[in-house]
Inverse folding.
């Protein structure tokens, strides 16, 4: 006798009530295509949305920190409503949206007013709610948000009403448009950034000393609708068969599609696992590739090539934990867990790493760039104090060479107190460690690298590729003698470039590693 269990219904009463109370929103949801055929902005005046002609509100960054904190409070007060709206319109599980709202709130609580945030205020239909976080400063400055689909209309509508209150009863503008062919920001991050985008999914790594059953049980439970959905699984060769057996016990066999070249395929709820694919498939949240690896060195190389934002590492070896977590650029790493964001508000900074506004500099991959990359790797292996000693020695030499220039001594004094921010949070069953990580090779186009900001950037572990005629009267030979990663280079046309480097208002990103040991998840 097969027992049949009915699915529990999801409560969306709050969302339904919100729709019924907002006539303009209800009309949009009932006829989005028809209403958006003629492009008009809606201006919110605190009472209602009024359709009117093109409106330019301009940018105003005054009181931005207070505005951002009010937006965080508004999100917190409306977390349940937001979760229900996302489920009602985009079928995103309630718990997935609540996790995203919590991260948005944490991120906004850590907000620092700057010009590093993305200059964009558009909500694409295939974007997660998280993408709003990387745009929040610009949305608040311009008091404008563009919605490109019926699926995100209700959330956009709610955000603009919260924005009105946060901006002190200033009119705010909401554009409802048809989807455009232009790529969304997450696509740009995925293709151009050193790290994949916010919605790009998790790579799980299962080593030979992992609790395989717990790993399978936990990682397959991650929703396909989550930004950190499971995308790829790398399993050490010695436990690969054990892993496939454990996965097969949970899943069902799936007839192989003739277009998919792999050894086997399994299904679990709404996703398909492709075992031993001949080549990686086009990314799809419902498809997970499963592959074997041999050594820790190999899996580190695979993670570096993948540029994954999220890593779920399953191992009980302390040495392997340290080696993997410190050898990859992934800003979010879970050890023996996945999709767990407990900790102080700063953990959200890791999630949003590499989502800021960057300037792209295409350069030709010549000898100077190759030398800089080599120096950069050696420089990163030195600890902070050793790098500080070397830079202070460099500045001492420049003081002797150019005694009339006072900035060298000023820069040296500033380096003496410069530190890398970090934090540790110990919970009942986890340890959360946050640390600063340099961005890497940065393009520089200013008049001089002899500034406090530039030297602090180098101290923090970055390399500078000078693309301007900076410091024409000063020889960089002292840097070369001390093996400090500073080189002169030239920009190239985008089509002719072999390398793209970045310039950002930030010098470091935050990485967070969550560790859980000794916990059994499998049932």
């Amino acid at each position: 006798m097969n027992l049949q269990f009915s699915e529990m219904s999801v409560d969306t009463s709050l969302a339904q009530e919100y729709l019924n109370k907002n006539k303009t929103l209800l009309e949009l949801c009932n006829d989005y295509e028809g209403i958006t055929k003629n492009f008009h902005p809606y201006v919110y005046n605190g009472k209602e949305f009024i359709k009117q002609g093109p409106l330019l509100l301009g940018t105003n960054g005054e009181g931005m920190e207070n505005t951002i904190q009010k937006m965080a409070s508004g999100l917190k007060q409306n977390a349940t409503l937001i979760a229900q709206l996302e489920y009602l319109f985009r079928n995103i599980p309630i718990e997935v949206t609540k996790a995203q709202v919590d991260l948005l709130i944490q991120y906004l609580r850590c907000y620092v007013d700057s010009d590093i945030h993305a200059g964009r205020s558009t909500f694409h239909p295939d974007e997660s709610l998280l993408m709003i976080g990387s745009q929040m400063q610009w949305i608040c400055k311009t008091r404008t948000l563009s919605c490109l689909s019926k699926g995100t209309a209700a959330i956009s509508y709610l955000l603009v009403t919260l924005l009105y209150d946060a901006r002190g009863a200033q009119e705010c503008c909401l554009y409802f448009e048809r989807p455009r062919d232009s790529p969304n920001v997450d696509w740009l991050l995925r293709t151009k950034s050193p790290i994949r985008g916010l919605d790009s999914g998790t790579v799980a790594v299962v080593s030979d000393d992992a609790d395989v059953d717990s790993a399978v049980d936990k990682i397959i439970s991650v929703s396909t609708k989550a930004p950190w959905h499971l995308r790829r699984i790398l399993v050490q060769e010695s436990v690969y068969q054990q892993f496939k057996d454990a996965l097969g016990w949970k899943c069902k066999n799936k007839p192989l599609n003739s277009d998919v070249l792999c050894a086997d395929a399994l299904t679990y709820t709404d996703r398909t696992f492709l075992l031993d694919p001949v080549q990686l498939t086009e990314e799809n949240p419902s498809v997970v590739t499963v592959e074997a690896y041999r050594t820790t060195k190999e899996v580190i190389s695979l993670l570096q090539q993948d540029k994954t934002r999220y890593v779920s590492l399953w191992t009980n070896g302390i040495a392997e934990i340290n080696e993997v977590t410190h050898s990859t650029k992934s800003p979010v790493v879970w050890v023996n867990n996945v999709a767990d964001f407990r900790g102080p508000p700063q953990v959200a900074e890791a999630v949003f790493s590499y989502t800021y506004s960057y300037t792209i500099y295409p350069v030709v991959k010549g000898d100077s760039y190759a030398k800089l990359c080599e120096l950069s790797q050696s420089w990163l292996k030195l600890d902070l104090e050793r790098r500080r000693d070397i830079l202070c020695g460099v500045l001492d030499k420049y003081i002797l060479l150019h005694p009339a220039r006072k900035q060298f001594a000023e820069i040296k004094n500033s380096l003496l107190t410069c530190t890398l921010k970090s934090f540790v949070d110990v919970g009942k069953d986890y340890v959360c460690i946050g640390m600063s990580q340099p961005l890497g090779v940065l393009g520089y186009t200013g008049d001089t690298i002899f500034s406090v900001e530039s030297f602090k950037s180098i101290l923090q572990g970055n390399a500078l590729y000078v693309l301007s005629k900076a410091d024409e009267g000063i020889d960089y030979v002292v840097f070369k003698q001390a093996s400090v990663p500073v080189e002169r280079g030239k920009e190239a046309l985008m089509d002719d470039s072999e390398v793209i480097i970045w310039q950002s208002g930030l010098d470091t990103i935050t990485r967070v590693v969550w560790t859980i040991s000794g916990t059994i998840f499998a049932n």
